[in-house]
Design goal:
single chain; 2 domains; 26% strand
Length: 213
C-alpha cells in the first residue's frame, strides 16, 4: 500500500504457507516493509503484508482488534491475520504471519515523512471544504446498531476515532473518488497507551479544513 520507491529487495520467490494453503510471490514487494515485515504484496484487491517472525503478532492483533471495535476505518473487509511459514528464495523457512487487508486506493500520507502530507492528500483528492459534505463528516444515521461493514464513517469521524484510540506512526490514504466506501482509511496500525500528538494534528487539520457549512 506504500510507494514502491521505499521497497527493500527480498530474495525470490517468497512463499507463505498457512492452513494447507500457499501464497507465492515471484516479484519484489509492491509496498514497503516496516514494523518488522519483509514487504507488502498486492493480490487482486488484497494486500498481503508478510512477517518472517511472530514476535509482533499478538501486539498487532490487539491493535487491529481495537481499531475494528472502535470503528476506525481500516479497509473492508476487516483485516485478518494468518500464521504460517515464510520462505524467501533459498533461505530456510521461518515461522511468521501475514496481515491480509484491503488494498487501499488514493493518495497516501505518512506522518513519519511529513505531518503536512495529510493536508496535501486532502488537496490532491479534492476533498470538499464543506462541513456538511458526505466526505467531510459521517452520515447522521450511524449508530451502534449498524455493523462495521455498513457504517459510513467520513473523514471527520475517522480523525476523531484516531484521536480516541491514540493512533501513532499515522499512515493512510485519502480517496476522493465518487462512491468510494471510505474517503479516509488507515493502515499499519500502531496505538499509544495514552496520547498521540499525531492524532491530535489529524483532528486539527480536518477541523480547519471545514471552512464553510
Amino acid at each position: 500500500m506504500s510507494d514502491s520507491e521505499f521497497v527493500t529487495a527480498v530474495e525470490l520467490p517468497v512463499v507463505f504457507t498457512y492452513g494447507g494453503q500457499t501464497q507465492t510471490f515471484n516479484r519484489q514487494p509492491d509496498g514497503k516493509g516496516g514494523g518488522g515485515s519483509i514487504g507488502v504484496w498486492r493480490a487482486g484487491n488484497r494486500a498481503w503484508k508478510l512477517f518472517s517472525k511472530t514476535t509482533s503478532l499478538e501486539k498487532n492483533r490487539r491493535f487491529y482488534e481495537t481499531a475494528r471495535d472502535r470503528r476506525l476505518p481500516i479497509g473492508t473487509p476487516t483485516p485478518t491475520f494468518q500464521q504460517g511459514t515464510v520462505k524467501q528464495g533459498t533461505q530456510r523457512a521461518t515461522q511468521g504471519y501475514a496481515l491480509i487487508s484491503q488494498w487501499l486506493e488514493g493518495k497516501e500520507f505518512n506522518f513519519q515523512t511529513s505531518q503536512g502530507a495529510f493536508r496535501q492528500a486532502l488537496e490532491n483528492q479534492n476533498i470538499s471544504h464543506s462541513r456538511g459534505s458526505p466526505q467531510y463528516q459521517r452520515y447522521a444515521l450511524i449508530s451502534i446498531l449498524f455493523s462495521f461493514s455498513l457504517s459510513a464513517s467520513r473523514i471527520l469521524a475517522a480523525c476523531n476515532v484516531a484521536n480516541e484510540v491514540h493512533l501513532i506512526d499515522v499512515q493512510g490514504k485519502v480517496n476522493g473518488a465518487a462512491g468510494v466506501g471510505e474517503p479516509l482509511a488507515f493502515f499499519d496500525i500502531n496505538l499509544a497507551a495514552t496520547h498521540s500528538e499525531q492524532a491530535v494534528v489529524l483532528v486539527e487539520v480536518i477541523t480547519a479544513w471545514g471552512t464553510h457549512p
